[in-house]
Amino acid sequence: MNIDWTAFRQAIDTPKRFVLTSHVRPDCDALGSELGMAAILRQLGKEVMIVNASETPPHLAFIDPSIEIKQLGQDISAEEILDNYDGFMVVDTSAWIQLGEMANVMKAFQGTKLILDHHVSQDDLGGEMFKDPKCEATGRLVYEAAKAWGLEISAETAEVLFTAIATDTGWFRFPSVSGGTYHAIGDLIEAGAVPSKVYANLFEKERIQRVNLRGRILASAKIIHDGKLAYSIATKKDFIDTGASAADTEDAINMTMAVAGVEAAILFVELPTEEGVKASFRSRTKLDVASLAQQFGGGGHVAAAGALLTQPLDEVVPMLLDATEKAMG
């Protein structure tokens, strides 16, 4: 790990009351990392509140059965955070645009500000950065922090961290997986994580709305650039017709990556409840999609990245396809 855990621990020591947050439309790595870090901070005698700009997606609610994760504006106000907390930690992102309304809270926050992340791209969030872009998941970083500080990992914490790592590695099939990944996973299973339970919650309890949206996305799939680039689209009409939400598009892009010969893929999502288009990128070759996404205000990893654009869908699609084809050569 390329993180100084001693320095991170020292940075945590002074604040007594922490707010944890992560990116909009949180995935399991964001949610699991928040819950795992909250458990660690409480072992260190801290009070902790987890607050996100977005609600927890319904299909991921299983990860937080006690509904510990709150939503800004619904469960707590910005003023309450600013008045009552002296520590602010961001996990699993280091980009302003990914924080949503929590970005304004962070900018106004006067206490200690920390960031724990594993993404390549980053903004200056005005806090102390602890980052390892080579790490497969932020959940792994939380696990490593607990081990470095000699803290116990309960069964509940083991399960959320297992979920974080398992999902951010595509259930251990992405190139980011290493021997260290399996050592960590083995530890988490020994601590009480149950892989079969996590898998069932993730993949065997689908909502019909999500299934129908996946069908629309797959039906829209096209292959260009001599069969090397796949792209698909989810429109506002698709969300209306199926009753699905933006969170139901998670991982859909990986289905087009399964097509023989495809080296990269893009999923365009016309956001159903706000203006804009979310573009998700994947690559299995030397194409650096993090650099590609950065051209459009986004970021991420070399093999998986994303961007949020404000232009209409009919402008975004040809613009990003052209940029991607040029990058592929």
From TrEMBL:
It comes from the Bacteria. InterPro entries: DDH_dom, DHH_sf, DHHA1_dom, Oligoribo/pAp-PDE_c-di-AMP_PDE. Residues 241-327 form the DHHA1 domain. Residues 18-165 form the DDH domain. GO terms for molecular function: nucleic acid binding. Signal peptide: none annotated. This is Phosphoesterase. It comes from Blastopirellula marina. The lineage of its organism: Bacteria, Pseudomonadati, Planctomycetota, Planctomycetia, Pirellulales.
